[in-house]
Specification:
- By secondary structure, the chain is α+β, with helices and mostly antiparallel strands.
- The chain has a single domain, classed as Super Roll (Bactericidal permeability-increasing protein, domain 1).
- Strands 1, 2, 3, 4, 5, 6 and 7 form a 7-stranded antiparallel β-sheet that branches.
- It is globular, with a radius of gyration of 19 Å.
- The protein is built from 5 helices and 7 strands, in the order ααβββββββααα.
- Helix 1 packs parallel to helix 4.
């Protein structure tokens, strides 16, 4: 789930507003403006934005990261070095319907694949009250297939009246079709542990996704809004309010 939150954060925080979307005399429907915004997001993820000092984030590379996650069915602590994520710019927006009365977006977005690799990791954890240990170290490599996220996303105006911020998620939900893993654990039971991950993890993350998304929604929104504050994007919304 932490990886999911990180992936979602990377994908969203790079959004950039472009004045070309609102041209004098040109009229857009609310949903077409939403589509334009997501196409701009895709462009920034792939190419960056030199004016706002945003580097391309597909692939997204980071030198070091720490993760800690503890829930009823999963306990995990990991340190990851020299990581790279591919596939962030290949998202598909299945629905982005703007709801004028609520100032919200009915969002349905899918990442066909997200490939995650790291030169070295160290991990300690378990599934289902220590029934399945998840400890290991070495090369980390796995792919998330068809990560889908749905939610009604309420928007609000920043205090300086310039930026679009996220107010809250309503009924957030995500699903994962499959996770394939080629991770190094202890060089003895790698095939067994990778098979366990592929057979169990995607299903259980999906099963508890509503709870997980709701539990970590406020945390995610707080991080996202720190980035959205940098963009003077509220004027785009005023066109359709």
């Amino acid at each position: 789930m932490k990886l999911f939150l990180v992936v979602l954060l990377i994908a969203v925080h790079t959004v950039s507003t472009n004045d070309a979307i609102v041209r004098k005399g040109e009229r857009f429907t609310p949903n077409s403006i939403m589509r334009h915004l997501f196409e701009m997001l895709r462009n920034v993820i792939r190419k960056g934005d030199s004016d706002k000092n945003i580097q391309p984030t597909d692939p997204y590379k980071f030198p070091y990261a720490e993760f800690y996650f503890r829930e009823t069915f999963l306990r995990l602590q990991a340190n990851i070095s020299h990581g790279i994520i591919n596939g962030l710019g290949d998202f598909e927006v299945l629905k982005s319907d703007f709801i004028k009365e609520a100032v919200a977006v009915d969002l349905d977005i899918t990442f066909p694949f997200l490939n995650f690799e790291a030169e070295h990791y160290e991990m300690e954890g378990s599934l289902f009250h220590d029934a399945f240990p998840l400890s290991g170290m070495g090369l980390l490599q796995f792919t998330i297939h068809n990560l889908n996220f749905c939610s009604k996303v309420y928007l609000k105006q920043s205090e300086d009246e310039k930026a679009i911020l996220i107010d809250r998620f309503e009924n957030p939900y995500f699903s994962i079709e499959q996770i394939t893993s080629r991770t190094q654990f202890d060089d003895n039971f790698d095939d067994i542990f990778n098979a366990m991950i592929e057979d169990l993890l995607a299903d259980y993350l999906t099963r508890f996704s509503g709870y997980l998304a709701s539990s970590y929604g406020s945390y995610l929104i707080g991080i996202l809004n720190k980035y959205f504050m940098h963009f003077e994007s509220w004027r785009i919304i005023t066109v359709i309010l």
